[in-house]
UniProtKB/TrEMBL annotation:
It comes from Rhodoferax antarcticus ANT.BR. Pfam families: DUF5906, PriCT_2. This is Uncharacterized protein. InterPro entries: NrS-1_pol-like_helicase, P-loop_NTPase, PriCT_2. Residues 6-72 form the Primase C-terminal domain.
Amino acid sequence: MAAIPSDDRDIWVRIGLALRQSLGTETGYKLWLTWSKKSTKFDEHDAEATWHSFKDQAVGASVTLGTVFYVAKENGWIDPQREMPDKVQALDDTHFVAFEGGKCWVFKEDFDPELNRSMLNRMGVEPFCNFYCNQKLAVPQGESFKMIPIGSLWFDHPARRSFHKVVFMPGMPTPDGCYNLWRGFSVAPIPGSWSLLHHHILDVICAGDISCGEYLLNWLAFAVQYPDKLGEVAVVMKGERGTGKGKLAYFFGLLFGEHSLQINQSKHLVGNFNAHLRSCVFLFVDEALWAGDKQGENVLKGLVTEPTIQIEGKGANLITAANRLHIMMASNNEWVVPAGNRERRYFVLQVSDKHIQDKPYFAAIDHQMLHQGGLAAMMHDLLNRDLSAFDVRSFPWTDALDEQLLRSLDPAMQWWMDYLGKTHTCWEFPIRGVISEAFALANGTYNSKSSETKLGMFLSKVVPGGVKKVVHASVAGAKPNDCYQLPNQTACRQSLIKQLGLKNDPWI
C-alpha cells in the first residue's frame, strides 16, 4: 500500500471500504489507520468516524481487496511475482501468444529492412521453446537454483503478452483482448503542393478525360479516408512500358507504408498461400496476371468485391478475415482483366504515351514528391477531399473497358459477334451448316442433336424477341433443312450492345 497516495480523500475512502469488506473491522482498521497516518491531512477522529460510517454502506462485491491492488498498480506499483527478468522481458517486447485457426501460437514482431516494413511471424509453441532452449536463467527452487530456458520462462510467465485474437482493423478502436495489425499511415498530412503527380494523373493516367480523372482522385481519397472498407472496384491501367503507370502506384503506396504491397507474380495473388494480404490495404498488381487464367479469374473477382477473404499461411489452418483491399493493376498486355457483361469491378484506363521514357518529366515528379513535401500534401488533400456524393461502384465506362469486355467473350459470343459483323443478304441460316462450320467448333466436339439444342438456347438469349424455326422442303431428294429466322441485323446488333453494356458500337 506504500504506492497508494493517502492524501486523496476519494482514494482514502475507497481503500478503507475495500479493507473493511475484505479483512474485517479489526485487522482492516489497523492496516487502514497505519497507511492513513502517512498523510499530512490525517485526523484520527475523522478516520474513526469515517470507518464506522462504512457499516451503513452496501458495497456488495464491487469493492474488494482486488481494489487495493488495482489502485496500487494505477499508481506505479509492480507485483514482484509478475516482474520479468531482463532477458525474459526482451522476449515479451517482441513476442506474444494468441489463438488463431483454433490453435495457440507464438507470434514474433519483426522488421524487414529490405522491404522496409514490419512483419508478423507465427510459430508453434514447441518450435519457439526449442529455439531458445540454449539460453537459460537460474531460477530459485527452494534452497537451490534450477536452470530454465528463457523461452519456457516467458511462455509460462503470468504477465506475458497474450491476446484472444489477431485482427486487422485500420483506423478503428482495437477491441479488448485483440492484437491489431494496423500500424497507421506512414505519411503525416501537411498542406502543400503535389501538382506534378496530380497533373500526371489527369493528363497521362486518365489521358485528359476529366470524368475519369475525377473518379480516380475520388477512388484514391476513398482508400485513404476509409482504409477499413473494401475497395470494391479495381483500377486497371493499360499502356506501354515507360508511360508512368507505376509512378502513381509507387507514391500512393508510400502513404500506406507496410500496409501497401506490390506483387509481380500471379501466385502471390491467386495462389494458395496468401498471408501477405492479411494486413494489406493498397495492393498494386504489376504485370502479374493473365486474363485467360480461368482459375485465377474467380479468385481475382473475389478479392475485388467479396467482403471477406480466406487467408492461408504455410503450415497453418485456413482463417477468414475482413477484406480491406484496394487494388490497382498495371499491364502492357492487350488483354488484362476478364471483364464480363455490364462490368462493375474494373475501372480500365488506357494510359497516354505522351511522356513515354521522358526521364526529366518523371525526375521532376520524384523530386517534388520526395523532397518538396509532395507526399504529405497528397495525403492532406486526399484526406480532406469531399466524398459525400461519391459512389465507388459508379465509374465512367471507357473505351478501354469496352476492349477488355470484347476480349473476354466466350467462344459462342465471339462467334455471334463475328456473324453480326458480316453482311448477309438473308437473315435466315441453316442450322446444320452453322453448327458444323462455326458454333460446334467454338464449343467442342460436334454432335448434331446436342449442338442444335445449345445453339437454340444461346440464340434465345441473344436475339431480340427470340428466333423462329422454319423447315424448308427438300430439293432433289435432299433432306429437309431446318433454319432459324432472325430479326434484321441492326436490331440484333443494338440488342447485343445493350446486353453487354458496351459504350461504343464494336462494328464501326
